[in-house]
Every structure is written in C-alpha cells, then in structure tokens.
Write a structure and sequence with these properties.
Structural class: alpha/beta
CATH topology: Rossmann fold
Number of strands: 5
CATH superfamily: Glycogen Phosphorylase B
Distance between the termini: 45 Å
Helix content: 25-40%
Mean pLDDT: 88
CATH class: Alpha Beta
Oligomer: single chain
Low-confidence stretches: none
Shape: globular
Strand order of the largest sheet: 3-2-1-4-5
Order of helices and strands: EHEHEHHEHEH
Length: 175
C-alpha cells in the first residue's frame, strides 16, 4: 500500500455513527504506519466539536459539510442530537440534499480518494462508481440492537401498538 491511499467517510448525521467512524479513521492511521489518509465529511459544528478527537490530524482530517435547512427541522439542525426522533426522516432528506456538495468535495480532494465509506447516504455508491472509487457500506450498530430486532421479528411483533407501547420482547430474549 503506497502513500497515496485515501479514504473518504460520510457517516449518518448522528453522533452514535460519527464517533465510530472517527475511531475507525484513527485506527486505520495507527495500523497503516500513517500511510492511509482519511477525510471525514461532517456537519460544520461537529467538526469543531470533534476536532480534538482526531489523533492524527495530519492524515485524519474533518471536512465541514453544510447541512441545508429542511422544513419542519429547526433552523441550524445538523445532527440527530438537535431534533426529536420523529424528525429524523427530515434530517435524512437534508442529508440527501448534500449530494452535490459531497460529490464536488470528493472531486477536489488530494490525493484522489481510493475508497469511500458511507452509512445511510444511499446515493454515495453511485457517485463512487462514476468516479472510479470503491465504496463500503459501514454501519456502526450495537449488537444488542440487532439482537433485539431479530428477536422481535421472530416473535411476529410488528412494532409499536396503537396505544404507543413498545413491542414486548419474546421470552427467549435475554434481559
């Protein structure tokens, strides 16, 4: 692996996704003897909040992306932490609206990116393919969340009932 290996990462706009991406970038820098450059595309305020967590700032850079306003999100919304959970689909719409900025940012990066990690931006593989970059879907999810979802699906429970009570876990699910 030469000096020109460059990874771009664009995680879902939630700190529970962004921080694992940053940890991965730091680990790749350490494990590669600092030969892998990584650029994380993040909302502007997140860049200032997490800059100190880039343990290798010369090769792990946090690049600001503007998250456009989408009604009914409050002005200035950049991450899921800024909103109640029921507004997350609107944040996903805002993320989709960053497509052109993300593509132009990727085109301007040096060295040219080799690999693109994405989470929920379903349109990134298309951009990566068009630019001759390989893409990787990386979804940092807690194993307990997956186990709970599988257990609920196996029990046949379809989710929240009309009375807004959370689904009951099947008896075989460990507590």
């Amino acid at each position: 692996m030469g000096e020109e290996f460059h990874i771009v990462m664009y995680p879902w706009l939630h700190m529970g996704h962004i921080i694992p991406y940053l940890h991965l970038a730091n680990k790749l820098a350490e494990r590669s003897a600092h030969k892998i450059k990584t650029t994380l595309l993040l909302p502007k305020k997140v860049v200032s909040q997490l800059q100190h967590m880039s343990l290798h700032p010369s090769i792990v850079s946090l690049h600001p992306i503007t998250i456009p306003h989408v009604d009914p999100l409050p002005l200035g919304t950049e991450t899921a932490s800024d909103i109640p959970p029921h507004l997350a689909p609107h944040l996903a719409t805002a993320m989709d609206l960053t497509r052109h900025e993300v593509e132009s940012t990727i085109l301007g990066l040096q060295p040219r990116p080799t690999l693109l990690f994405y989470d929920l931006a379903h349109w990134l593989p298309e951009i990566a393919s068009k630019l001759g970059i390989k893409s990787v879907s990386y979804k940092p999810v807690v194993a307990a969340c997956l186990a709970m979802r599988i257990a609920i699906e196996r029990s046949g429970d379809k989710g929240v009932s009309e009375s807004d009570h959370p689904p009951q876990l099947p008896p075989e699910y460990p507590s």
